[in-house]
Every structure is written in C-alpha cells, then in structure tokens.
Design brief:
alpha+beta; Phosphorylase Kinase, domain 1; 6-stranded antiparallel β-sheet; two-stranded antiparallel ribbon; 9 helices
Length: 251
Amino acid sequence: MDCDHVREVVSAHLDGELDPPRSRQLEEHCENCPPCGQLVKDMRRCSDHIVEGGRVPAPADLAQRIRTSLARERAATQPARPLRQPSPWQMAAAALILCLLSAGGGWLVGSRGAVTNAATDQIERDVVASHMRFLVQGMPMQVATNDTHNVKPWFAGRVEFSPVVKDLSANNFELVGGRLDYVAGRRVGVVVYKRRQHWIDVYAWPADAPPAALAASVKGYNVMSWSRDGLVYWAISDLNSKELAELPRLL
C-alpha cells in the first residue's frame, strides 16, 4: 500500500469500514512512514473533535414531551373519547424511544433545528472530517488544474460515475482540481473550487434514493446537499451560506 492509497482509504479505516487485510496493510505502512502515521493521528483527532464538539445530551424533558405528543395524537384521532393518561405500553414505548436516542450519542447541533436520520448524520460527519483533512494537509489534490478537460477525464476509471466538472470562473468560482475520498464507506469524487480565499469541496456519488436538500452550519463550516441527474452532491466551505448556495444552480 502506497501513500496515495492510504489517503484514499484512511477515513474508512478509522470508521471500521475497511476490510481487515487492507487495514493491516495500512497499519504496517504507517509504522514505516511517519507522514502517513501522522496523518492518521491528525484525522483521528479531527474526527473526535467533530463528534464531541457537535453533540449535546438529549433534553431532560424529552420523555415528558414524547408522552405529551402521544396524548395529543390520540386526542386528535379519537376526539370523541375523553383524554386519558398514557397506557403502560405507551409509556414503555416512550421510554424505549428515549433510550434509543440516548444510546445514539446525543443530538447533532446545527442550523436545521432538528435531528436528521443516522445516515445523513454519518455523511455530514464524514464530509466535514474530509474537508478538515484537506485543509490541514495543505490542499493535497490528486489532479491540480483549472482545466475541465483534464479534471473530468481524470475521474474516469477511478469512480463508476462522472462528476459534474464546470469552469465557473465567470461566476467567481475558480476550479482548482479534484481528488478521491471516502464518505459513509463509499469512494466519492471531490471537485475543488475556490472563491477569494475560501476553499470549497463538492462531493458527488450515485444516489441510492432521492435525498432531501439540506443546509447546515457545522463547526464553522457551511454544508449543503442536493441531487440532480442521479447523483448526490454535498458542498462544504467556510464561505458564507448565501454565496455557497449559488453552487446548486450553477452545477
């Protein structure tokens, strides 16, 4: 395993999604390669920081809110019956929901104001961690050019789809290159743009199902997602959200 391969699979390795033989190869490589060993340490610290810094305990009154919600729903569907206290099985169900939410590690704090599903949370964490690694490592791109005719063909054979690569310089988004990374256990294409001094990563992969559009603020970065023509896109940057929101229209 060489250094380029380590950079591609290290995220999957830290998430426990890499098969054991390749994990051992990565560890053996890192034992003899100080830069890659340091990369793994930096990524682990970044991931821990994101997880710990972006979560808070579930609200203390969550169980009561669930019971109240159940009572309101029952009253709405059976208006003719007098309101009764939740039955023992309903209280048990509420307690089970509370336990499951607590076991999930808390609630992700972001601009959405609500808890998203676990798959979206995992993607969001991976995208933020990937972008932070990109910045920490001094912008290591596997293809560095503003020529779309070089960037787009570079992805051929490396991923099973064709990410959208456009020259957006007329719209003040400068194409600077591309690379591969892993998000939620899958290899994805990353097209890199720059606006003024702000780096922008645009991740793409085939859509398993049409996802809901998302816009969030996580650890000082603006994150947004959308889908088009069978592909899912996630963009992340410290660029302000209003300017970042121009990308879905342009790509």
